[in-house]
Every structure is written in structure tokens, then in C-alpha cells.
Amino acid sequence: MIWIGTSWKMTKTLAEARAFVDGLVARRNAVDGVRAFVLPPHTAIAAVRERLPADVGVIVGAQNAHWAAGGAYTGEVSMRMVADAGATMVEIGHSERRDHFGETDDDVARKVSAAVAAGLTPLLCVGEPEEVRAVGGELEWVAGQVRLGLSRLAPRDRHRVVVAYEPVWAIGDAGREPRPGEIAPVMALLSAGCVPGERIEVAAVLYGGSVNLRNAESLLDVPGTDGLFVGRAAWRVEDFVELIRIGSGAGQSEGKGRRDVGAAW
Ligand code: PEP
């Protein structure tokens, strides 16, 4: 099944979050046939979870959580806390967290393993900055981030991780839309395995960064792509549902979304 998800980043009040959920519930039939997820800000996780009927199959997640089980970490929330609020997934290692908050690959690795320990699906974000792409270093960069991000996880738990390839140069208002050919080698690497000699199983490999209604279909067509992780273009519920429809259509094609039980790396 194809994955279509969105992080709301630091947007949406509780009222706006509830209105989004109501719009989704009103279009609930569209959600069947894809694995949809929304990652509200922490303040809205519980409200979104409580307002979504259990039979509307949308996963609710967090955009971040700390690796420690608890304690003197002012301003942070633990994996257990976001799970308690209703999250079953947690985004880890987004480039904005690496850039603005100094998150290192080892912080990311701690969070990935803490997420699994708390029963959450880690959404591990990786992607190269523009200057690395300019010198053709993207495959090595992304492989390194994945290797380090999974380094504290027992190999038997890797099948619980969803990886999102999000090149930094493609993300956000300053980002530029990728051509399918630009991301294809990385998606091929991630879906086929980037650790030579080792077989790593993950749940799915998604693409994210300047996805929109126009390019979603062609990006989903890139071999090895199990779904899309979307920011701005999915913040209106109508557009999120339209992206879900596109994902559902792509999921009908041969060979798509097969990695429900783990991608072979
Ligand atoms: C993101 O930041 O993860 C993202 C995919 O953003 P956007 O779609 O807005 O580029």
C-alpha cells in the first residue's frame, strides 16, 4: 500500500487542526487504499487522535520526541508521552531539526531506538544539502545518514522503520522541485540497500520535498518509492485528500507499495 503523509510543522491551532480532521472525515472514503498519516504539532496530537474515528485509517504521529524516558529536559517530551497522546509514529531527523536545533546523527540514532522501544514507528528523515549534491556526493551522504540513524537499533527491529528521503535543497519555501531523474538513484539505493554486504529490512521508503498536486504522480512513479511525505502542499485538507487519491491510483500499478512487510536493503 502507498504511504501519503504530511507534517504540519509549526502550523495549525487546535481549531484549525480539528477543522482539518472534520474535512478528512467528511471525505473518509478517499482514505481507503492508502496508508495515510498526519503529524500535527505536539499541542494538537491528542485532539486530532480523539476526533478521528478509529475506523478512518489515518495514522497520527509526532514531529519529534526526546530519546530519554523522562527527567530534567525542559521543553521536551518523551516518546512515551507522544504515544500517550495518541501518536503511533514519530518523525526523526528532519533537516530543519538538524539545522536549527543542532541534531546530530547520534541524536537521531538515539531517537530511532527510543521510538521503537516505545512502540512507535520511526520516520527517519535523510537527505543531502545542495553543496553535497553539487559535487555528486548524495548517495554516500544518504547511505551514511541511514547507517548512523539505524546504528543503535537491533537489526531485527529495522523492519519497523520508515525512511523518508528528503533532499535539503528540495524542502520548504526555498526548495526547488526535483525532477524524477534527480531522485531516482537515491530511491533506488534506499530501496535496494545501501549497506554493502548487509541485508536491512525497513517498512517503506518515501520521498519528500516540494511534492505537490502536479508532480506527485511522476514522483510516485520513481522506482523504489513507496509513498510521499508532504509539507506545504498537504496543509489544506482538500489537497491532502487529492494527494491521497493520486497515491491510491499509483498503488494500483504493478510493483507499487509491495514493501508492506519490509524493504530489502
Ligand atoms: C518537509 O519539510 O518534510 C517537506 C516535505 O516540506 P515541503 O513539502 O513543504 O517541501
Key attributes of the depicted protein:
alpha/beta; two-stranded antiparallel sheet; globular; 10 helices; TIM Barrel; binds phosphoenolpyruvate; eight-stranded parallel beta barrel; 17% strand; 265 residues
Short description:
The protein has 265 residues and is of the alpha/beta class. The chain has 10 helices and 10 strands.
List the helices and strands and how they pair.
Elements (H helix, E strand, L loop, with lengths): L1 E6 L6 H13 L7 E6 L2 H10 L6 E5 L16 H7 L3 E4 L2 H6 L4 H13 L3 E6 L3 H5 L3 H12 L12 E4 L14 H13 L8 E2 L1 E5 L7 H5 L6 E4 L6 H16 L10 E2 L1
Parallel strand pairs: 1-2, 1-9, 2-3, 3-4, 4-5, 5-6, 6-8, 8-9
Antiparallel strand pairs: 7-10
The structure holds phosphoenolpyruvate.
Task: Provide structural commentary.
There is one protein chain. The protein has a single domain, classed as Alpha-Beta Barrel (TIM Barrel), CATH 3.20.20. The protein has 10 helices and 10 strands. An 8-stranded parallel beta barrel has the order 1-2-3-4-5-6-8-9, surrounded by 6 helices. Helix 2 links the parallel strand 2 and strand 3. Helix 1 runs parallel beside helix 2 and helix 7 packs parallel to helix 8. The chain starts with a strand and ends with a strand. Bound molecules: phosphoenolpyruvate (PEP).
- In percent terms, what proportion of residues is strand? 15-25%
- Output the CATH class name: Alpha Beta
- In the sheet with the most strands, the strands line up as 1-2-3-4-5-6-8-9
**Average predicted local confidence, pLDDT:** 93
Number of strands: 10
How many domains? The number is 1
Uncertain parts: 258-265
| Count of helix runs | 10
